[in-house]
non-specific serine/threonine protein kinase (Cocos nucifera), 1310 residues
Amino acid sequence: MLKMKTFRIQPFLLPFLLSFSFSFLKAGAQTEAQALLKWKSSLFQPDALSSWSLANSTSPCRWFGVRCNPAGSIVQLSLPNANLNGILDDLDFASLSGLTKLNLNTNLLYGSLPSNVSALSKLTALDLSSNNFSESIPPEIGQLSEMVDLRLYNNNLNGPIPYQLSNLRKVRYFDLGYNYLENPDYTKFTPLLSVTHLSLSVNNLTGKFPPFMLNCANLTYLDLSQNNLTGTIPDSLSTNLVYLQSLNLTANFFEGVIPASLANLTRLQNLHLGLNNLTGGIPPILGSISGLRILELYNNSLGGPIPSSIGQLRMLERIDIKAAELNSTIPPELGLCTNLNYVELSLNQLTDGFPQSFSKLTKMSEFGISSNLLFGEISADLFTNWTELISFQIQNNSFTGRIPPEIGSATKLQTLFLFINKLSGSIPSELGDLAQLTLLDLSENKLSGPISTKLAGAQTEAQALLKWKSSLFQPDALSSWSLANSTSPCRWFGVRCNSAGSIVQLSLPNANLNGTLDDLDFASLSGLTKLNLNTNLLYGSLPSNVSALSKLTALDLSSNNFSESIPPEIGQLSEMVDLRLYNNNLNGPIPYQLSNLRKVRYFDLGYNYLENPDYTKFTPLLSVTHLSLSVNNLTGKFPPFMLNCANLTYLDLSQNNLTGTIPDSLSTNLVYLQSLNLTANFFEGVIPASLANLTRLQNLHLGLNNLTGGIPPILGSISGLRILELYNNSLGGPIPSSIGQLRMLERIDIKAAELNSTIPPELGLCTNLNYVELSLNQLTDGFPQSFSKLTKMREFGISSNLLFELGDLAQLTFLDLSENRLIGPISPKLGNLKHLLLLNLGSNDLSGEIPPEIGAATKLQTLYLFTNKLSGSIPSELCDLAQLTNLDLSGNELIGRIPTKLGNLKHLKFLDLSSNDLFGEIPHQLGNLASLVALVLSSNSLSGPIPETITRLANLTFLSLENNSLSGMIPRSIGSMTSLESLHLKKNSLSGDVPLTLKDCKRLTVLDLGENGFCGNIPTWLGERLSSLRVLRLRSNMFRGNIPPQLSLLSSLQLLDLAHNNLSGSIPHTLGNLTAMAANEQVANNEGHFLGEELGYSRGYSNSISIVWKGKEYLIQNLTLSLMIGIDLSNNSLSQEIPAELTNLSGLIFLNLSMNHLDGSIPEMIGNLRSLESLDLSMNHLSGAIPPTLSSLTFLSSLNVSNNRLSGRIPSGNQLQVLDDPSIYGGNDGLCGFPLTKNCSSDQASDVRLSTHYDGDEKIWLYLSMGPGFVVGFWGFFGILFFKRSLRLAYFRYIDDTYDRFSRISMRSM
């Protein structure tokens, strides 16, 4: 990085800077956009990403599947079921470092999971499930310390599960099921203490019960089904996993007895032990698990009786013990389990008959007891009491007597299997009244009489589904939907039936379904209880006849493209428990009829364009616990009906336009609230102290509002609070010491809140804190000593305050104090931070030497000390930091030689020692840094040759050695650096020719060899082989010969600087084919491609190029460089005419052909260069008149045609009237007219334009348009900032952050 003059932007300059600094706000988004576009280009026919184009929107925030925060940075990428076909290798995760959610489930992605996903340090949710990923899981995923939800199920992943995944200390949902994964190294796999949902089902796990799971103390759900696990079920499972609600060990090889200790799992609701080798009977003590709802023990060799104690399980809903070698009667106590609706006891040796108590099982729906030794008559009470019965299967027994006529009372019956028994008598005519009966088998009995024919239905369920399928566009996922494949739809993809064969669930998420719901006959699917079509390509309106699904309990149509309004008929679905319509394009008022859903618990209409309902008719949803209306167009005050939704535990109204105060009654009415999110609205006034009454509150999100009045100290009494976000408000005042009472607090974010106090030492008592963000305030003093107790700290941000003292933070892993006002020496105590991974003290005023004690922080991976006043030499102890990947000491006053031991840091990727006073040769040992991606040694006093060993760095993409005193030739082996994209060698004493091997560096986009002593001809292969070049700078060398016409092959070239050489001959007319110079819009749209950020550099190492601009030299960096398109061929010996083809380059900003031997006239169509701001043709032999089209260059602000042989009248009008310096036309004796004092003769006056009054009209309109133009431009920008507070805060914060960028542009007079 070059040393540059810096300057402070004065307040009076700010209005002028505002006119162009808004474009800087887009830089981050454009870098993110380029990363996405690069990945898109690698995919096969990514039709779903058609909106991903800078031609559609310069902001990626409007692209399909992309979600941004209010500042315009991408935070979510959600592309499930988008038919994406390709790999992830070209997705630059480092450019998307703000991502919190990445969802690519149910696509056609393949290949390995990239290890650089670890760059997504803020990621909380990663879903790559249901793809074709193969190979092993990269252990680097274990570095994603914010991960809460990890889903990699249903892929082809194999190999051991990396033990590093156990570093995910926050993960709660962990699903690696349906792969080919093997055992991890259990000796290194530490318990996942935060996980509640853990599934490794359908893998290749072997051996005994995984030991680490026995210490995952918060587990509520554990699924190890369909593996190859052996041994016994451990007794300690019940003592260690006391919160377990669901345990699934189905389809393994567990043996031995069922542990009686399972009865200690008092919270257990679901127990699945089927398909194992268990023996020893059913432990009677299982009957004491009072909350058990599901008991599955089927396909084991248990033997023995059904314990009568099972009758104590009064919550039991489902029991399945088929094929378990049971040999007893059916205990009558089973009839006490009055919640039973599913009984499966088939394929055993049960004897006797039905207990009379079974008549009390009034909720019975599916009953199977076939293939036993049962006998006796079928009780009529079963059918009169079992009114919910849909399946009755008692075949292959010895039942006798008649079929009870009362069977006609079971009107919902769909399956009736009585075959292979000893039933006699006639077939009851009442069977004909069973309108829903679809499967009937009475064979192999002793029955007589007729069979009723009243079993016709209207349109069958199968026909209804097939009709809808035919209306969809290429429904490949529904290929199994065919009567040729199966006459029963129950085996079709996504279809679930009950035991009677009726469809009860239709689950088709991520199935790439494209079409509408208009042809789906809901009336024919009246038995549906669950309909899940989320994440498809469905569009159109939501059909009102969905109200025919009277049994529906769950409706999920989220993440589609449904539009128009929500049909009020949905309010008729009285059984609805779960309603999800989020992430569509629904609009209009929310129907008040939805408040008729009296059983709904989960209610999510977020991410739409919905407006306020009629609050006068919207009654409270008394059963709802989860309510989200986030990211909609709600206006006005806090929605009144919500204050009466008394059972709410989760409320999200974020990103709406709500105003007014936060109501006090919220805390008295919603006493069960656990999570409250009001982020990004316009709430004002004080934070209600009454929120402290929400004693169950865990998450409080009030950021990005207009709240004032300080932080109420009483918030410190909400003892269960885990997350507190109050950022971007105008709170003011101190951080209350009472916050230290929040002992459960894990995350606190109060940045940009105008706080003006010290940091209270009581905050150090919140020992569960792992995330602290207090930046952009006015906090003073230093760190409290108590902060040393925060042993779980992972992310700590307190930048841009008034802090000046560093405390004892012995357990910290990340310490970022950059951009503060820290002064004095760096404390040697930092070496005591043995857990530190990142230390950033950049951009302060620290002085003195770098303490060698830092070398004792041996886990350090990133060390940033840039832009301070540090002096002395680089301590050799830094070379002991064996884990170091990023080292930046640039912008200091360091002296001495570069330590040779730096070459031992084998993990180092980024090394920046620029802008210091280092001397001596570049150590050849740096060639051992095989992982190095960026090497920046510019602006020092280094001498000697470039070491040959540097060319071994095969991964290097960015090399800057400019502004030193290096000598000799470029190493011939440089061609081996095939990853190189930017090479900066300017301002040295290098000599010789350009090595031929450089042609193998085909990824080069920037080549700067200026201000050296290179000689010979400019190689033709520069144009033939380096097709990606955008910047070619060879100025101030000793190149000779002609300009090779092959340079015109560089279709991406935007800067060509060959000035100050010994070039001769004509200017190749083919330079007019440089297409990137033909339109500046094209380059602007691609600016992120070569500017450095996309290389993944930790601090965004940037290309900086010196150009001569309007007679002065400027150092231009990324943001400006992208706009700078030009050619400089000055100070050579070029001859002949200026090629007319150069006027095709309409995107040129500057053109300098001065100080050559060019003759002929100025090209007539010079006016085509409509973007030109600087034109220098001086000191040539040009003749003839100045073309009138020159006056059409409305952006021209610098012109020099002096010292030529031009003649005639100087054109007038437009921008030329401003260029009133006579010297720019001097040395042309034949010129006359303004601004020269020489008047034109009558012959010369004939060159004046005929319609002189037209100039006057133009001026009048120009002046008339200036006023309205200023008003529109001013308020178009400042109006947004005035009315949109979040943008205003983001903008001015951005201005602060870019002070340094402005200060890096240095200018010196030529």
About this structure: The two ends are 22 Å apart (CA to CA).
